[in-house]
Fold each of these.
Amino acid sequence: MLEGILQGLTTAVTPINLLMVIAGCMVGTFIGMLPGLGPISAIALMIPITYGLEPSTGLILMAGVYYGAIFGGSTSSILINAPGVAGTVATAFDGYPMAKKGHAGKALAIAAYSSFSGGTIAAVLLLVAAPSLASISLTFQSTDYFALMVLGLTAVAAFAGKGNVIKAILMTVLGLMISTIGTDQTQGIQRFTMGVPDLIDGISFLLLAMAAFALSEALMVVLRPKSDADRVKEMNAQSNLGSLKLSKEEVKEMVPVISRSSILGFFVGVLPGAGATIASFLAYGMEQRLAGKEKGKLFGTGSVRGLAAPETANNAACSGSFVPLLTLGIPGSGTTAIMLGALISYGIQPGPRLYLDNPTVFWSVIISMYIGNVVLLILNLPLIPYIAKILSIPSTILTPLILFFSLIGVYFVSFNTFDIHLMVLFAVAAVGLRLLDFPLAPMLLGYILGGMMEDNLRRALLINNDSWSFIYERPLTLTILVIAAMTLVLPYIISKASIWFINRVEKNMAK
Amino acid sequence: MLTNDRIGAVILLAFSIGYGILIYDIPLLPFQAASAFTAQTLPKALSILGIILSLILLVTSRNQATPDIAGFKWLNGVLICILMLIYGFSVRPVGFLISTSLFLILSEYTLGERRRNILIFSTIPVVLFFWYLMSELLGVYVAPLPEFLMDMLK
């Protein structure tokens, strides 16, 4: 393991790779700060550029962009109360009130320190957890993988939140349907191509991701332009940031919060489907309870703890979500789904073999995630006042550029103009689904996992002479499938049971 | 009431049914059709799942939210989509530099930018720089100008 770490370190600190981390963090912060554009869009926009690079260099760039985009999202949450992504919504609870009091600089500094510490602790955990999990998962067979994919898909729905479970499953099914378009891998039969030759290869992952996220987000800005009042708010926010320094008491208050939240965040991040959003809300809730009555009341009014907790957990969860990706090859979130797509396009199959076959890639990604954290702290934080100027670029100029980068990103990979037209079609559909409040990330996850799931299922059936008995004959497969079924059913049962319980208590009270 | 959930459920129901009908276009050879898992198996399962789930959503949804489209600039959205489609048709015959510059300028104009200097200086330098970055530095070549101009320059 030590050898691997050193190997990763030597790869990560080569000048070109260091440059990529720095550039990635900068670009990521820049994109993440734009309202609406989150890490998924930021990474998707980077993929075409990384095609010309070495796999590890490309991945390092994307890891930097990822961290930068999250940091940028926090910045826009704090400065203008407009979280770029769901993961930074909880940041705005205390960050924005703090900024309104004139302590925007301090809020940004707390966010940066918390992200840094959360990322650091999580990177250490990742360093320990990933190799051991990878060696266990080497014993997995295609039947187990099939079961794991099913678990990944059901987990998405389980964490979708109240009232959204069916919608999330429906969107996952939609993603699975899209993944079946094109030539069937095992038997070489065309499916759903409707005689269009451009569809024989299927719909590219990049096209779907760009259309569903970057392009549709830009179209939403076109449809719903910002009002003048919002623009004035943004101008004011970035003109007076205040001091970036923290007092000793504030640091003292932050330390225990950060250590608790980072561990919580990491483990929530490891769970497939959960991710940064849930981690940040959980950490916020936990700290509010732990703070006691007096200090708990300060939450929501600009509390240091209330800002540090979600920011730490959010970043730690991002590192955590790399564990299932790197060890099992299963993405747990929309962002890691994008990373998976990028890895596959490099010809690298993430999973337990990655650790053995491409140790350089494996370790350099982990190490560069840490370097990314350092870069954010020492480079991005001081530059924030300047980067925040981006918020004052009018959307009349910015939106066409985002449209252009999305379209050309896909075109520069396939050189097929049909893709541009298909993207417009998908983006319009995605705008429709957005307006109807249907979540798009499960669709992307369904699309990515769909092809893999079908392949593994077929392989499992071939090995078992076309018999479905492997589902109950192999204990590991059965266990994972049972867990998958439970993740789907349990939230429903728990909510019903709690309603029943509350009703009973109320009846007893009435008596 | 036409709520978000119901509209979405109906659309996805229609999609699932359409998808299900297209499954019969997937050709199977006799020996393939006999195996436990064919190219049609997963699509069939997905189509049924999609139909059941959208029906459940249609019937059980109690969410009363309706699409929030007040103040939407539909015309701008449609125009931008048309510009993107035209861009798709023009990027190859007209060449990257001209078609992209026109796309950006017209999009900015559509979104309300009228200052001539900004229209020109926020677009053309970006296009030139991006083309240079991709073609010269990263080795991804795309024809910059229409063919006849390229021939004349040779």
Amino acid sequence: MTVELVEIRKYYGTKRVLDGISEKIESGEFFVILGPSGEGKSTLLKVMAGIERPDSGKMIVDGQDITYQPPERRNVAMVFQNYALYPNMSVRDNIAFPLKMRRTPKKEIEENVERVAALLGIGEILDKRVTVISGGQQQRVALARAIVRNPSYYLLDEPLSNLDARMRTVARGELKRIQKELRGTFIYVTHDQKEAMSLADRVAVLHAGKFEQVGKPKELYDYPRTKWVAEFIGDFPMNFLPGKVLGEEGVEVGFRPEWAAVNEGRMECVVESVEAVGDSRYLLCDHEGHRLTLVSRNNYDVGDKIKFEVNDFRKFKDGVLMD
Amino acid sequence: MKWSYLGAAFAVVYFLFPLYILVLLAFNSPRYTLFAKFPSLLPIQLTLNNLESALQGSSFVDPFVRSLETATLVGVITLALAVPAGYGLSRLPRSIAYPVLTLLLVTNMMPAIVVGIPIAVEFVKLHMFETVQGLSLAQTLVTLPLATFILQGTFSSIPRDLENQARVDGADLLHRLSSVLIPLTGPGMAAAFLISWMFSWDEFTYAILLLPYHSTLPVTIYTDVTRGNLLAGVAFSLVFTLPVIVLTFALQKYLKGEYLSGGIKG
């Protein structure tokens, strides 16, 4: 179902946590809300769940205004960061709980629990207590409980952040597969830009209570609307130099490491540290007092003087991308 | 180290000696205890006659049952009121909840005798004087704040997101309480019940003010002792401690500081 946010505002005392959030999320879309910790991502998700009430603004799901509907009356599923499994119940009862609350016939509950358990590969642990299973299994149980019924939209609050790095990559692929299979509207919150880029159909960057930019991952990477986004997105932040270095007056120029070629051209910098990622070497270096990140296949040592040339760049004025 | 053991040994003797005397009185022939000029501290002629004759008199069973009824009723009423009160307080902001909790405990600073007499007057008008139910309500006055304090702590220790999850899963307030929250408050409920039960079990002031004629066991023991029926008093006292010992051992693991402190942190 489509989920539409209209000018959502939320204050805690005098602190503006959400300062006018508007966006239309399409049916079947994997929509990721990305932002650093403490920027109100979880608050926004709680507003969308109905747990918190916005101070103003509207939330419309499938044409219906549900802004003031409590969560128990909304048809929404949510996965919390710590999974929030009911510790007094078995895995099976946890997954069945949302169906039980909706007075689903017993047989139907049974079938649905078995179905999602098979889908997530947790059929074997259905009768265990949730306190004795591993973190990865707990994450699957939480996900199973969310997808066992057919909600209008799904909310996921950093569901992978408690997993170790390897498990996270696996779980990410699985999550994407399940979302496509269900054709569900997934709204996913994370602070991990890598996760956002690999999962999302569209990413919304939340900063200072507003969506600073909303777009496809590639768009955000190639055409960040502001300097802030440019520095937040990407494994390494975008490089910035005063425009006059490249013959552009009154602006700043930004370029990604891979938009510059090392060992060519006439600009020079001094390598300060080297970071290996796969078979690439990311060179953190100093160009006339500006910190830059360049990338090369060849290895360099700290203190080496290297030449580089910027092949592609974006122009920013007052921190905002110029057309 | 050695000295502390000595101290502990002294404390044990100090507290258990009266109990020992009680047991001695109960099982020794009165010839060597109550009626002796120099009572023996050792069992000389063990007998069950004392207990038998005391417990056979109808004056024992009725007060004992009344005590059981009152204590259990106090425990039940207290839990029934303290669960919603504790839940509500745990969901309020601290700036409101803590002053309320403090005020609740202030009610216990008033002596029972001050509160008891006006209550007795009101109960006479309400036809609740000299009833087990009336006494239970009055005793709940003391136990409810304690139980509320314990249970608000227990509810506070349950993560908020667990309840939020239940809401998202479609559970209304009653289902959230019955399926998720209350099953997780077991220890707190046990502690609250036990404290209420035990308080009522040996409560004296309200009992003598509100149920003076056919009273509970503590009052009966008091009248037996003061009116010369010493042996019956001894026998009753002994039986009186038994349920306390049983309950304490059964629920001992819940009676640790962490449950009673109510999970409140600085």
Amino acid sequence: MNTFLEKIKFYSAHIIFTLICINDSIFINTWIAPGPIINIKYILIFYFSFFDKGRFSITFLFLIGLIFDSLQGMPFGMTSICFILLSKLAAYLKQRRIQINFQNEFIAFGTSLLITQIVSVIILSYFSQTPFEYLLLVINIILSIIIYPIIKTLLKVFYYY
Amino acid sequence: MSQNRLARSSTPGVSSLQRTISKKFLLPFYIIISFLFLFSEKSDFKTIRFLKALINDGITYSVYLVNAPVKLISNFGSSARHYFNFNIVLENKKLKDEIDQLNAEKRELQFSKNENENLKKVLGIKNRDDYVSVYAKIIHEDTNEFAKNLILTIGSNEGVQLGQAIVRNNVYLGKISEVNLFSSKAMVITDLNSRVPVVIPSRGVNAILKGNGLGGAQLLFLPQNTVFENNDQIYTSGSDGIIKEGLYVGKIITDNKKEIKKKKYSVDLGFKEHQLNYVSVLKVKK
């Protein structure tokens, strides 16, 4: 029974992440803020890669990335690369830190998010013709960084990392 | 069998080594596959496009199934609110008044329509292309920092083509941006990349309506010193030759500043996002 509950708890992160990826608009735009404001999916990937390296496997992130691209009309493969990159960056930045405190973690999140978004912009501008608003992207990064401590606290309560 | 088990248990390092090797190869493998997908975006091969349309269809319909319970829960709140609506008598009376008023307007419109047809005959003006509408269900609605899309249940099997307008109750919502075999994607008017030629008939002004990516839109290329009033209505102008003219888009809302140069205009769109279930795709009648 105990192991069954543990399994449910383990895979709940995968289920939440999948639902958030396929329901970005329902979870974020209607309830919290209008428009594509906060990047909860990136926060989740960073959190679980930073504190529990093995939880989101590369295969899982690759497949969810493809589903996300298909639903959003993005160039196929773009989100998969971004998800894997963010996950690897988070794991690498944690490895490099000797002492893990909130400040270090916060800086690591900001850095990884910035690098990932820069990569996504490069891919999008090279492989897709559609223009996009840089201001909106900056707002997205800043608000994701601001909201990170809140989501992190909620996850910490449930997953104890 | 038992020897095999023994062999496996005596060499515990082998499986972990295999796992490490496969993990080491997985990362470059997925990166290469992703880049192959990305480069296929630029290619124009029919087979690749067909394969992508198939993958898109598969993902779309499986997401629809996975998402059904989530939608059920999110719709439960609004259904409960409707069920416990105690002002139903008042609402009924209000709706009856509205129907009477609309019927009166309909009669006036019919008269104007007949008059217009007769005048067109006298002047020898030909009617523009007729449109037929195809009914479609929205199975998914998604937004990210780059785009806003609706996914519809009809694709090239129903003759859907790129650029066709999607409407709801004659209100313009957006246009088809990608066509698969049994599904299609529509770009909503509020998407950052959306540009629609519009006209404000009460002022005789043409403009371009651009989405702002945050659930709204703004008017571009307005003539200098144009003055609008509150509730001036915006319609599609049809000047691009694809979108039907005269579809209602929304109305103008102005601030209360008296100086013309300082006045700012915003657009109140004719539909509410996240409340769409069904739409119609407008096709040119052949």
